[in-house]
Structure formats: C-alpha cells, structure tokens
Specification:
The structure is a homodimer of 350-residue chains. The first copy, chain A, is of the alpha/beta class and 350 residues long. Chain A folds into 2 domains: 6-181, Glucose-6-phosphate isomerase like protein, domain 1 (Rossmann fold); 185-332, 3-Layer(aba) Sandwich (Rossmann fold). Helix content of chain A is 48%, strand content 14%. Chain A has 13 helices and 10 strands. In chain A, helix 12 links the parallel strand 8 and strand 9 (286-290). The longest helix of chain A has 29 residues, at 172-200. Chain A is globular, with a radius of gyration of 19 Å. Chain A starts with 5 loop residues before the first helix and ends in an 18-residue tail after the last helix. At the A-B interface, helix 4, helix 5, helix 10, strand 7 and helix 11 of A face helix 4, helix 5, helix 10, strand 7 and helix 11 of B.
C-alpha cells in the first residue's frame, strides 16, 4: 500500500520522461499528420471525456494556429444518441481516451468510420476497443497510469495533438524539437514548483469553490486544472474563459473566493490580465499561474512556470503547476488523490 | 424604482408573448435558412458569450438533428487574437448577441465576412454594430430587456435557431407551427410553475454550489440555468453533461450538495437518469426538472414542465423552470436579480 497520493505525485513527476518517450516516436505522428493534411478536411472532430476533453480543447487551437485547420470538440450524443444524418466524408475524427475503453467514444468512432470519416485513435492502450475501431491508432506511450487522477496521459495527449497539427502543417520536426526542450524545462522546474505548491496549498484547505480562468491555448489548462481540483480536492472548481467570467460568473465572486488565473505570453494575455483584475476588484483572492504570472497585479499567490519557445507549448508547462497544487492540497485535506471517492480509473458510463 | 427582481420576473413571464411575436416573422427565418441550405456549408460556426453561448449549444443540436448539418461553437480567440489562417469560404457564421455590441463578436464577424463566410447576425437590436457587420441580420423581436439577467432574449435565440435549422431542412412551417404550440404550453404552465418554484427555493438559501446536468438539446438548458443561478443567486453552479459528471466531478459531491437534473423525453434520457442516480448515490440532493422529471428516482424536489411535440422544443420549456427558481431564490436571499453586483447589461469586455 502506497502513501495516499503517492502515485499521483510520482506520475506528475514522471511527465518529462513520458513526454521524452513519446517524442522518440514523432515520425509516426508526422505520418498521420501528413495524411490528415492530404485529405484537406472540412473539419477535424475531436472527442473525449474528462481530461481527454480538456486535451481536445487544446487540439482546437493546435490545429487552428499551427495548421490553419478547423477543429472542433464534437458532440458525441448528436451521433450516438440522436443519430443525426451528418455528412462526415470530409471529416477527420480524432478520438482521445487513455484506456481506449470509453463506450460512447468507441461507438462514435465506429459510426464515423462507417460514414466515411478518417478516424484516428490516440490512446495509451493500442490494443483497446478504440484502437480496433479506428482506422489509424497512435499510442500515447505514457506508461501505466495507476492514479485515478490523470496527469501523464493528459500531458502526452497535448504533445500528440501538437505533433499531429505540426505534421499536418509540414513542420513536424520543428514541433518535435520544440517539445524536447519543453520536456527539459519541465524537468528543471519540477522541484522548485513542487516546493512552492506545498507551501501555498494548505491555505486552501477550507476552500469549497474556485474559478479557473484561461483563454485560447490555456483554456485546456483551465479545464484540466479545474478537473484536478474537483476530483482530488473536492473543490467545486469551474473553468471559464477570461471572457466567460465577465458574462455572469463575476457576480458570484466574493471576498476570499479564490480565482486561479493562467497568464501566458501569448496573444490572449491582455484579456486574461483584464479578467484577473476584474475578479480581484470583485474581492477574489488571486492565484497567478502560467509563464506571465508575474504580470497579474495584486495576486496573493503565484506559481509561475518557464516560458516555452512557442505559445502553443505553454499548456504543457502551465498544467504542471495545477497538478502539483492539487496533489499538495489533497494531501493537506487528508484526501487520497490516487483513489478519489466515487471514481474509477476507467469510466465505462455512457 | 421597481421592487428588486421585478423586471426579471416580468420578463420571464413575458416569454410566451415574446416568442409569439417572433413567430409572426417566421418567413424571414425561413428565407435565411433556405440560403444556408443552398450554400451546403462545411460548417456552421456559432458564436456568443454568456446566455448567447448557451443558446449556441442548442444550435449545435438544432442544426444537427433537424437539418443534418454540422454546427459548432467556434472559438472567437482563434480568429480575433491568434489570427489563425482558416479557410471559412464554405462556412456559415451565426453570431448571437442580445445587444449586438459585444466587441469581440463584432470583430469576429467582420473578419469572417472578409474571408468569405456567409455571416448572419441574430440580435435584439437590428441597428447595432453586429447587424452592420453581418451580411444578413435577423431580429430577435424580444422587446426591450431591462433586467441584467437575460430571459426572453435567450428564449427567442432558441426559437431563432430552431426556425433557421428548420428553414435549412425545408420544414420551416412545421417548426414554426410546433413553436406556436410551445408558446401556448409555456403560457399555461407559468402560474403553477412559479408557485412551485417559490415554495421550493427558500430551502436553497444557504447553498453555495450546485451542479446542473443535461445532455444533448438540454445541455443548453444546463448551461443557461447554471448561469442564472450564478449571476442572480451567487451560487457557484457548474453545468455538466450527464457524462461529464461521471468523469471527475462526481468525486466532489457530498451530502446536501444539490444537483439539478434536466430529464426530457428524448434519446438521451437514459444517460441523464443514470447520472442522476449516480449523483444521488454520492449523497447529492436532487432537483428534478424537464418533461421527464418524474422519472428521476429519489428526487427531493421536482419542477416538471409539459412535454412538447418534439425533443428539439424541450429546452424552451425546461429553461423556464430554472429561470423561475433563480428569480424566487434571489428574492429569498435578498438579492436583486435585475441588477446583480459586478454586472452590466451590455458586456463590452474582450
């Protein structure tokens, strides 16, 4: 029996290694990326649940910014439940599932393939039902993930999508080289960041709700950090774009209602800073994260990460701050991040 | 000076009338719907913030189920901030904004139009900047909305999207006739539903967080009800699909953490019932809503609505239960739903 949360923490720390292992197989991603480009898809349909759905948010920006391609988080229920009569012959489907066993994702892929879409599975289990259902399968190569709360599989999903988008744009090698440097930055930042997260987290022991804001590439991070806080720390953490906040939720903020803001050096930075300032004006305690954390005025706490070579890589570093914070807070609250109540590793529910 | 919340309540009650007024102009929606079909779009890109974004969720299902067309909630920041080089020449853009003055939505439409997309504005102000920016403008005809918390403009956004999708599918008249019956059902249900909401709401005075679950068409309702609870009642209410719940957030549920479940008679009902049962097993107090509310086992409270002639119409009735509940709860908490703190009617923020 391991110490509660030990698996989660060890897997967070194993991410630079997991990422480096994936990057040894960059040529496989390059080839599928080239095939996607060859088909000139009208739409790239991304599907997944939980952390995989957060990764899908990243895919929208990776394909859009790196590849100039339209990608969307598709509705599974539109196809699986309503059986909508969509023309998907010019679509590419990318299905994300750590286990490859999520039933409605497998069913969705089977139907899309029948209807003529080019289907790609990205999974940690290349012999899973999802891998069998899809035309092309790419392995996450994250190694066994034993904590219920995902970390390294999410990390490698982000890298997979960046590699695929890079492959579709004919710049796979550049992206792979950039990601290798990200793995190095991640390895270097882990110790000091874990220390800082451990210092900060106990102050949040009695927090019951939070907002997590990000925009653009970092919307994925906001969604994944909120999910980690929810499942491992039992905080009702809601992810919001910087703009969502102004359109309603800011009214719910009050003093000592913490807002986690992810500020990275990219085109959306000004919008994030403005949203953070607005949350602070409404009385929120701010936690500043991301490579531009220092630019958030009046933050009570900061968990900055290094600046990567491209904005597209920022989410791979930003999310680690949230993972480490969640691990430290779960421990402070006496919760077991490895085995949250009510959850199992493989969710088979529809 | 009106009594706090009086405007919100009066506008909720005005929805059958607002809907009926929109339906007098169904031919305009039919014509634009036919134009959308003529273009055989590769993708319909829906954009909006806040309630308009919740309505966009409805559009994904309306176009998919009624029209067999791929619609997506598009990323504004991909185009406005990152300036992604997307081919949108085969896209239709539908921009939703009550005021027609939301800056980044206007900017998004201008850029999409420059790039060759067919752009449609749906707004309550046909002389707004958004209306000028778009190629086609459709008026919501909801009448002036004076409460900051939206209700009748959201209602007419749903109806507009149903009419457009119906027009694209060559069945505009059938959809319009069906919606006329919905307006009648809504008028009949208002008094008893308001009474029931007023009886239930005070029990939630000290609730600080909730989940709101829906799936398919009713995902829009989950998002809109969560937004109403957040902005008018200061509850951190998070919308989730029935499946999202199982992938993490169920771990945060505890006894007396209410979950609002929207169960309607459609293809997703079994998934919603399963999610509700799971939330209940984790200790949540259930509020059952929707036309199939009675099918949710062990619900502590119920706010059922009538069953409409098509599943596609269900969200127009289901949302009213949430609006009335939010109005009653805001009053019980001594909050002014007409003028929530930190919010203004027109959000100009990026």
């Amino acid at each position: 029996m391991t110490r509660p949360g030990a698996l989660f923490l060890s897997e967070i720390r194993g991410q630079p290694h997991a990422l480096a292992r994936l990057l040894e197989h960059d040529a496989e991603y390059e080839a599928v990326g080239a095939e996607i480009a060859r088909r000139a898809p009208a739409a790239i349909r991304l599907v997944g649940h939980g952390s995989s759905d957060a990764a899908a948010s990243y895919g929208v920006y990776a394909f859009g910014v790196l590849g100039g391609l339209t990608a969307m988080r598709d509705s599974i229920s539109l196809t699986v439940y309503y059986e909508a009569d969509l023309d998907v012959s010019k679509s590419v489907v990318i299905a994300l599932s750590q286990s490859g066993r999520t039933q409605d994702v497998v069913e969705y892929v089977a139907r899309m393939r029948d209807r003529g879409a080019f289907t790609v599975a990205i999974t940690n289990d290349p012999r899973s039902a999802l891998a069998v259902a899809a035309e092309a399968t790419l392995s996450l190569l994250a190694g066994p993930e034993r904590s219920v709360a995902a970390s390294k599989t999410y990390m490698n999903q982000l890298a997979s999508l960046a590699l695929l988008a890079g492959g579709a744009a004919g710049k796979a090698r550049k992206i792979a080289d950039g990601l290798r440097r990200v793995a190095e930055q991640m390895a270097e930042m882990l110790d000091p960041l874990a220390l800082r997260a451990g210092e900060i987290a106990p102050a949040f022991t009695y927090v019951e709700r939070m907002f997590v804001i990000g925009r653009g590439f970092e919307l994925a991070t906001a969604r994944e950090v909120a999910l980690k806080l929810t499942e491992t720390c039992r905080i009702a953490a809601e992810p919001l774009t910087a703009t969502d906040l102004a359109h309603g939720p800011v009214a719910a903020i009050e003093a000592l209602f913490p807002v986690w803001a992810i500020a990275s050096h990219d085109e959306t930075l000004a919008a994030v800073l403005e949203a953070a300032a607005r949350a602070r004006a409404a009385g929120a305690t701010l936690v500043a994260s991301g490579s531009a954390a220092a630019k958030i005025a009046d933050a009570a706490f900061a968990l900055p990460v290094p600046r990567p070579s491209r904005p597209a890589f920022a989410p791979l570093l930003s999310v680690v701050a949230g993972q480490l914070f969640a691990a430290a807070l779960a421990r402070a609250k006496g919760l077991d991040a490895d085995r949250p109540e009510q959850l199992t590793k493989v969710t088979l529910a529809q």
